[in-house]
Design goal:
The chain is globular. The protein has a domain of 249 residues. Strands 3-9-10 form a three-stranded antiparallel β-sheet, with no helix packed on it. A three-stranded antiparallel β-sheet has the order 5-4-6. The longest helix has 26 residues. By secondary structure, it is α+β, with helices and mostly antiparallel strands. The protein is 26% helix and 14% strand.
C-alpha cells in the first residue's frame, strides 16, 4: 500500500494548488473571510493576564542563559587582550546617554502627573471607590467587593478563600517597589550589608530617572565629564577635581553633584497644559490624562532600561537599579537559606519596576452594586488597577488591554451559568 503522502499527491494531481495561508505574527486575533483566502487583522493584539508563577520557582530569564554565558566569555576575552582600556560607550563609562536625558525628564514628569491624577480620582469629590483585602494584596475597583475565592492570606481556609474588604488608597492602586540610591553608579555600584540603614531608599522608577539625567535635591548623584578606565576589570577614575586640579578625592555628595543638561522638574509646576486649574478639569478629562501619563511612563521606562541596567531577585519582588545588585541579606523567599539571605539577581523587566496590579473587570457598570460571583469568574476580564480606575472614570480603553478585559464577552446570570457551554 503506498504511503499517505503519495496518495495525497495523487489526489491533488490535476487540481489547483492548495492554498497556503500566510504566516501571521503570534498572539494576534485573525479573522478569515471569503472562504479563508484573505486574512484580516483585528485592530488590537491578543494579550492575556500572565499566570503568576509558583513561589518556589524562579522567574523566567529575560535573556537566555546561553546568551549570558557567551557575553561573559566575550567580556573576559576582551579584558585579557586589553587589561587597561578606556570605556567608550555610555553609561558604562560613567557618562550620560545624551538622547535619553530628555526621556528621563518626561518619565519623571509623567510619574508626578500620574500620582496627582490618581489622588484626585481616588480622594476627590467624584472619587471612585477602591477596595483592598485585609489579609492579602487583592484590590477591587467598585462599590462592593467581589466574592471570587482567591484569597491566600492568613486563615484563608477558614473563610473559604473569601476576601475581607476595606477601603483602599492610591498606594493600593499603584505601588512602586523601592531600591537603594547609588551616589556613584560606576565607582561604587553595590551596597553592602553594613550600609543597610545608611543608604537611602527611593522608588525604583525615580532612581532610574536620576541615573539617566534627572537631578533631585534629596538624592544627589555624581556626574562625570570624562569616561573612566577599566584595569583588569576594576574601574579607575582619573578625572581631575575642578577646584584644586588634583586627582579626585573623597568629597561630599553635594560638592560632586552638578546640574543635568536639562532643568530639573519641580513638583510645584503646573500639572496640565492650559489656563485651567485642576479643579476646573472634569473627571473624564482627568482620567484620560492620567491614563496618558501611565502609558507614557511605562513606554519611557522601557527605553531607559535598554541602556541603564535594572536587576530583580529571581524569587522575590525586590529590585535594584544599577549595573549590579546589592549585597544586603534581606531575601526571605524560597531557598534563601542556601543563599544566606542574599538575592538571586537577574535581568528585570518594566513590570518589575512598574508592577501591574491586575483587578477584575466587568463591561456592565450598572451591575456594580452586585458583587462578582465566583461561579462566573471565567467570564470576567482583568486589567491593571490604574487602567480600570481610569476607564471607570470615563477614559477610553487602550488597545493593548481590550482583549485582556474581554469586552466582547457578556457574562450570564447566576441562575444560568450552568446552562452555558
Amino acid at each position: 500500500m503506498p504511503p499517505a503522502g503519495l496518495l495525497a499527491r495523487r489526489v491533488l494531481r490535476g487540481r489547483a494548488e492548495p492554498m497556503v495561508r500566510p504566516l501571521l505574527p503570534p498572539r494576534a486575533w485573525t479573522r478569515w473571510v471569503h472562504g479563508g483566502r484573505e486574512p484580516q487583522e483585528e485592530e488590537f493584539p491578543y494579550a492575556d493576564v500572565p499566570r503568576p508563577g509558583r513561589k518556589w520557582e524562579r522567574k523566567p530569564y529575560v535573556t537566555p542563559m546561553k546568551v549570558l554565558i557567551r557575553r561573559a566569555k566575550e567580556e573576559r576575552r576582551a579584558r585579557q587582550e586589553a587589561p587597561c582600556r578606556v570605556l567608550e560607550h555610555p553609561p558604562a563609562n560613567g557618562l550620560l546617554v545624551p538622547h535619553l536625558v530628555e526621556v528621563a525628564h518626561r518619565v519623571h514628569r509623567a510619574r508626578e502627573k500620574l500620582l496627582r491624577g490618581l489622588a484626585i480620582l481616588v480622594k476627590g469629590e467624584a472619587a471612585i471607590p477602591v477596595k483592598r483585602c485585609r489579609f492579602c494584596s487583592e484590590v477591587h475597583i467598585g462599590d462592593v467587593g467581589h466574592e471570587i475565592r482567591t484569597c491566600e492570606g492568613p486563615n484563608s481556609a477558614s473563610r473559604n478563600s473569601l476576601h475581607v474588604w476595606r477601603p483602599g488608597t492610591v498606594r493600593d492602586v499603584l505601588g512602586f517597589p523601592y531600591c537603594y540610591h547609588l551616589f556613584d553608579r560606576v565607582g561604587k555600584p553595590r551596597v553592602v550589608h553594613k550600609e543597610k540603614y545608611t543608604v537611602p531608599r527611593l522608588p525604583a522608577i525615580l532612581e532610574l530617572c536620576i541615573q539617566a539625567g534627572v537631578d533631585v535635591e534629596r538624592y544627589p548623584t555624581k556626574r562625570r565629564t570624562r569616561p573612566v578606565y577599566s584595569i583588569d576589570g576594576r574601574i579607575a577614575d582619573f578625572e581631575l577635581d575642578e577646584e584644586d586640579g588634583s586627582p579626585e578625592a573623597e568629597t561630599s555628595p553635594e560638592a560632586l553633584s552638578c546640574p543635568s543638561p536639562l532643568p530639573p522638574t519641580s513638583s510645584a509646576c503646573t500639572a496640565y497644559a492650559g489656563d485651567r486649574t485642576e479643579e476646573e478639569i472634569t473627571v473624564r478629562e482627568m482620567s484620560y490624562r492620567t491614563l496618558e501619563s501611565w502609558l507614557e511612563m511605562r513606554s519611557g521606562a522601557v527605553k531607559l532600561m535598554r541602556k541603564y541596567g535594572v536587576v530583580t531577585c529571581g524569587y522575590c519582588p525586590d529590585v535594584q537599579v544599577g549595573p549590579k545588585g546589592h549585597k544586603v541579606r534581606m531575601c526571605k523567599a524560597s531557598k534563601h537559606q542556601q543563599r544566606d539571605g542574599q538575592h538571586a539577581w537577574q535581568e528585570a523587566t518594566v513590570d518589575d519596576i512598574v508592577p501591574l496590579n491586575h483587578v477584575w473587570h466587568v463591561c456592565d457598570p450598572a451591575g456594580d452594586s452586585v458583587p462578582l460571583a465566583n461561579e462566573l469568574k471565567r467570564y470576567y476580564g482583568k486589567a491593571p488597577a490604574v487602567v480600570e480606575l481610569c476607564v471607570r472614570a470615563g477614559a477610553p480603553v487602550p488597545a493593548q488591554y481590550r482583549s485582556m478585559m474581554r469586552l466582547d464577552v457578556v457574562p450570564p446570570a447566576r441562575d444560568e451559568y450552568d446552562l452555558v457551554a
